[in-house]
Recover the amino acids of this structure.
């Protein structure tokens, strides 16, 4: 499994709090205006970015945590890149089960976009690849776990705090149909992460809903999709009528973290709540 942890970037920062916006599960089609369960995913993504602007968010960087393109179309990645670029000059991506890693790597500037180990201010931000090509569920894999341990040791030596981002959920979130797809080797992931008290939070996409929990001192966070939402607590596939949204994070110098979710206000989105499946993986 390919991963991006070997690529490291030290980002300039003027000290103090590091501000991040997470946009996830955009599911853009090959053609502009493509729909997922009746929702125009370009329109909803742009509305979410506009909401972040209206919220007055000033982000040092944006993370996009997978399922960025619904079918891995090269044109979808270019539209995402342009839309995020207009909001924030620095964006970083990781793949979800719907993505095509080769198409992501073909995007201009992909060496920067697909960098897995970012250092900014007092923080390290890691972007993992939990995609198993051709499958819906997620896994980190032994190679990547080894690289994760090395990256975390290096950050610990530099006394940095760490935020770990990935696509699939590492814990069950209470939706049976989604929880079958959670990170298969999550126990091994936690065994590595929990060896390093500098790791403050795990942040993921995939579940198209908000989760904010704790596991010991570790914050566990997931976020709304920029398109269709999935209903919390559902045994089988069920879309939800909540509006699309994004997550903001403020990573403070001393390791504290403030975060929240903001959903689009004042826009009506079309979504087919009767559809009983998600069709593609
Ligand atoms: Fe998704």
């Amino acid at each position: 499994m390919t991963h991006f942890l070997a690529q490291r970037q030290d980002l300039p920062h003027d000290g103090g709090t590091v501000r991040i916006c997470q946009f996830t599960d955009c599911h853009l089609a090959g053609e502009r205006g493509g729909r997922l369960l009746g929702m125009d995913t370009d329109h909803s993504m742009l509305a979410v970015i506009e909401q972040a602007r209206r919220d007055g968010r000033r982000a040092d960087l944006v993370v996009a945590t997978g399922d960025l393109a619904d079918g891995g179309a090269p044109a979808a990645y270019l539209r995402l890149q342009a839309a995020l670029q207009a909001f924030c000059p620095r964006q970083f991506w990781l793949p979800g089960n719907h993505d095509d890693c080769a198409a992501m790597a073909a995007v201009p500037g992909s060496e920067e976009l697909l960098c897995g180990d970012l250092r900014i201010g007092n923080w390290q931000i890691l972007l993992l690849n939990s995609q198993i090509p051709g499958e819906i569920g997620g896994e980190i894999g032994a190679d990547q776990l080894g690289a994760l341990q090395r990256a975390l040791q290096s950050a610990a030596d530099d006394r940095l705090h760490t935020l770990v981002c990935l696509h699939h959920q590492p814990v069950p979130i209470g939706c049976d149909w989604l929880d079958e797809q959670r990170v298969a080797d999550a126990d091994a992931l936690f065994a590595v992460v929990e060896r390093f008290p500098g790791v403050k939070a795990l942040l993921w996409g995939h579940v198209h809903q908000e989760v904010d929990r704790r596991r010991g001192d570790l914050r566990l966070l997931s976020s709304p999709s920029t398109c269709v939402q999935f209903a919390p607590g559902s045994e089988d596939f069920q879309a939800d009528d909540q509006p699309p949204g994004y997550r903001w994070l403020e990573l403070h110098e001393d390791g504290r973290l403030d975060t929240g979710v903001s959903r689009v206000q004042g826009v009506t989105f079309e979504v087919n709540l009767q559809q009983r499946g998600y069709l593609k993986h």
The mean pLDDT is 96.
